[in-house]
């Protein structure tokens, strides 16, 4: 197996995986509408600029490339926005996933890796949350991904040739350790990115969304996973499908979490900037605590994370943010 078709390969997670696939010797084709991604982030293989709702272009592109496997990253990903624009999420994350799956089966591709999310669990009853926990999303983002997972499960049950891996990401952060890539959204909402842009003076202050959660310091707890370890999980998943591993769902996280306040402390320490922080109301759709049970991915994919270190995660993101700011200043 050597050809991989990647939707959303110009985005944050997709671009890191495209680079890792290229370095591992795969031939990659990225399909991305560049709504949030960047042409210059595609560092391996070609880019086709297109939308997943453009079924004709999608079909033609996939049929011409004839990949051995498909990785589907393209999606809208903001929990808060999804609460206010649910149909955008069902369109981009569910309906478009269905388009892609139909094309994939029409062309005869039978290996598929899907970017899912810990948001499918909602507020888990037990932590760390394991893959067999009930799916009770508390925001449209999580629901839109849960629906796409269901498409995959039903298709795999009906069609024995089709095999998939769904990776449920916890909180992805950090940048390529060589700082060739990183997160680059026009309106970033994620905590670490907001904190670092505040340290750079791009935002005047960082708000802490909710200080009355049932956690030790009252702020939400998340399991932050370094982007390079997440990228590696995709290559491991591909290897697993190549060996006939069979359809499976895996959490992607380290198995322990940090509160919003702990992240802020580390960001201040890494940057050396005592940036302004303000307590604010809870953000809609946020669960109190999300931490991954990760025994299955370690056992079945032989996934060995290398960067389980909040300071390293934030340091790579900081180096990237400084580079981005310098690039913007000089253009
Ligand atoms: N958060 C915050 N201030 C911000 C951005 C995020 O307090 O400016 C909190 C958010 O409420 C959540 C945690 O940080 O508890 C992680 O949020 P993020 O958006 O990074 O990821 P999510 O968990 O929503 O995928």
Features:
331 residues, alpha/beta, 10 helices, 14 strands, binds uridine-5'-diphosphate
Query: How many individual helices?
Result: 10
Biggest sheet strand order reads 3-2-1-4-5-6-11
The appropriate CATH architecture of the largest domain is: 3-Layer(aba) Sandwich
Report on the biggest sheet.
7 strands, parallel
- Quickly name the level 1 CATH class of the largest domain: Alpha Beta
Any idea what the CATH superfamily of the largest domain is called? NAD(P)-binding Rossmann-like Domain
At the third CATH level, what is the topology name of the largest domain? Rossmann fold
Number of domains: 2
How would the global form be characterised?
Answer: globular
Low-confidence stretches: none
Number of strands: 14
Taking the alpha carbons of the first and last residues, their distance comes to: 41 Å
Helical amount: 40-55%
Order of helices and strands: EHEEHEHHEHEEHEEEHEEHEEHH
What class would the helix/strand composition place it in?
alpha/beta
The portion of residues forming beta strands comes to 15-25%
Evaluate the radius of gyration: 19 Å
pLDDT averaged residue by residue: 97
